[in-house]
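> example.struct
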């Protein structure tokens, strides 16, 4: 068995056993969908005529998938380094790519299940989301989004040494980013300066690309712009992640 397969299998078993984390990974975005769906039910965004749900469903889905990618690998790397698992892996023939790749495979599976479950619930009569004909574009968008935020999680997991520090740093980045990038409220309704600030945040590009693909707001070029923005952040985060990765707490 290859190192990649062994690490992926071990990660899968650990994830399935942690039922509490698994439950909230899928339930938390749905909770936001229910809350915003009930609050803004039947209301439209004046600037575009689209329903609030069309905006918030795409934004909450993006935030949920990004959050899971960041927290999933950040906590794992921190714990593996604390338990000296990374040091043992380093002494084996397994390369760093096998460590990150195994977590990447799991993040893609989690993201796919999150997306299917979320969109399925959003399409119920209570919420009435109607996916656009270009919804298959969600697949490459989500892959790019998960890649970008997983690499951000690698950076966080390399610096943090305790569960508390992982949670503090990740929440410090992800929660403000969610509000400033339009995950919970339409950017079109926000001040111009805030819309400009959001351009330096990767979640803005994931939100836009998911919204264009899922609700048909815009066309293929808009999805391409979002994907291009995510790709730039992925390259930057990837370079920083490789440079800052730590196998042991003392390294």
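> example.seq
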């Amino acid at each position: 068995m290859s190192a990649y397969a062994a690490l992926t299998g071990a990660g899968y078993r650990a994830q399935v056993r942690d039922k509490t984390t698994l439950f909230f990974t899928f339930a938390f975005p749905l909770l936001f969908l229910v809350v915003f769906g009930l609050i803004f039910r039947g209301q439209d965004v004046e600037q575009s005529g689209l329903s609030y749900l069309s905006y918030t469903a795409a934004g909450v889905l993006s935030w949920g998938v990004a959050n899971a990618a960041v927290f999933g690998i950040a906590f794992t790397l921190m714990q593996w380094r604390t338990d000296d698992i990374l040091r043992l892996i380093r002494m084996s023939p397994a390369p760093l790519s096998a460590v990150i790749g195994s977590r990447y495979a799991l993040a893609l599976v989690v993201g796919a299940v999150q997306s299917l479950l979320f969109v399925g619930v959003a399409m119920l009569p209570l919420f009435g989301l109607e996916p656009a004909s270009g919804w298959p574009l969600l697949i490459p968008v989500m892959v790019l989004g998960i890649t970008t935020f997983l690499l951000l999680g690698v950076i966080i997991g390399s610096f943090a040494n305790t569960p508390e520090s992982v949670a503090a740093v990740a929440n410090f980045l992800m929660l403000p980013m969610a509000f400033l990038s339009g995950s919970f409220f339409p950017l079109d309704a926000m001040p111009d300066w805030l819309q400009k600030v959001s351009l330096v945040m990767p979640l803005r590009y994931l939100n836009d690309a998911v919204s264009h693909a899922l609700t048909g707001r815009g066309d293929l070029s808009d999805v391409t712009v979002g994907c291009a923005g995510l790709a730039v952040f992925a390259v930057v985060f990837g370079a920083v992640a490789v440079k800052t990765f730590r196998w042991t707490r003392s390294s």
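> remarks
DSSP finds ten helices and no strands in the chain.
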